[in-house]
Amino acid sequence: MFTKLLVANRGEIAVRIIRACKEMGILTVAVFSEADREALHVSLADESYCIGPAAAKDSYLNMEAILSVALGCGAQAIHPGYGLLSENARFAALCESCGLAFVGPSPKVISLMGDKDEARRTMAEAGVPVTPGSGLIQDQAQLLEEAARIGFPLLVKARAGGGGRGIRLVQEEEGLLEAYAAAAQEAKAAFGDGEVYLEKYLKPVKHIEVQLLCDKKGNVRCLPERECSLQRRNQKLVEESPSPAVDEALRARLMEASRKAALACGYEGAGTVEYLLDKDGNFYFMEMNTRLQVEHPVTETVTGLDLVKWQIRIAAGLSLDFSQEEVQLLGHAIECRINAENPLRNFLPSCGRISLLHIPGGPMVRFDTALYQDYVVPPYYDSMIGKLIVGAKTREEAVRKMQAALCELVIEGVEHTGEMHMELLALPEFLSGSYTTDTLQAHPELLG
Ligand code: ADP
Ligand code: ADP
Ligand code: MG
Questions:
Q1: CATH code, residues 205-447
Q2: In this model, does residue 135 exceed pLDDT 90?
Q3: Where does ligand 1 bind, in terms of residues with CB under 6 Å?
Q4: Does the 4-103 domain belong in CATH 3.40.50.20?
């Protein structure tokens, strides 16, 4: 096992990783920007180093700075968390060539799955059902031809997209050319890659995903699905496991497809296969995320597995010590993402000093955060400031526990989305479990 690990991230996920390392007896190294001197991950780590100015591109995305810290302090591994460098194949390759273990899959798998067009082709060849769509669009003639074949409505999607960005909905042929140009331009600006493809817009659908753990010996374990259909602008707000729409037979089919997906690309580490599920029980591969996901705690809650510890063990070459049959589904878990944003002002990000903080407690209530009393939330980074996760025997109990926990949560000093979650949980569509990815579009009053 490693004796020292560098955490190349910030916020709640850096804290989450440091905690896992402490429990495993691994020394931790934090890196931080000039804006994060007072950040919790810095004070919790055994060592910490400033790697540059506030802007992420000058610090948390500065590969050379991070690698020199790792080499200089004798770290053996780097955990990238999510976002930032976690899906950067070049960074993973640089780690390798410096003799550092990158906690994640190989650079080859990262770049294969990071290209959604290639990922779709790989999965289709492996026999995984894929959302109907096109290959990369080369010119206008092909655009019109493919659009006519797929039919409207459709989505123009960036092959390099992520975080809900780089997706344009086109209702009818009229708006196609404009959406294509805009999507390509937006993708070029956001991801440095303007290549796009088309996908049939499936509606109504649920977002269902399967968490994988794969070791370096070829062992693949599929964990019970998560549902993440409550979304705003294609970004997840609430996640739960299991999905109220998935029965044992469907779960077995989802797991079988995900196993094929993992084997098709030679996956190693923790990863997630995302699908769209229609009302007839058909599901379609959407993308694979080659990293730890924001919503991993719901899976930890229902399986009793520590996904971060497993990521680290796998990176160190250890084998999975439980069989697929031993994977348990112990109850029901829900997560609400708390963002420092004002829902009444179109989710405008909010920053400032935390003047009062009360974190909910009680059995099976977890709040993953890097907040503390008097901490100043900086304006430079992602606005997610905490994740409230609850677990219970049944879905009904979990919903009630989440409502109680949300009532208890106090974060003063910044605007945040905690109260909005009370309303989301009270939606009839959520309570019945019938909600889909477009449910919130029908409730504009909840979205400011
Ligand atoms: P996806 O939207 O790709 O299915 P997630 O919802 O788990 O996956 O994560 C959304 C993305 O949002 C992350 O990959 C990351 O790019 C970004 N993100 C969310 N929260 C943070 C954060 N606190 N720090 C950095 N990036 C974040
Ligand atoms: P990202 O990499 O940004 O996470 P995804 O491909 O995972 O992009 O899509 C994000 C979200 O957009 C999905 O969870 C879903 O709600 C919606 N979406 C994506 N593709 C489709 C589709 N073909 N039909 C309907 N909704 C879709
Ligand atoms: Mg996605």
A1: 3.30.470.20
A2: yes
A3: 11, 82-84, 162-164, 236, 289, 293-295, 381-382, 384
A4: yes
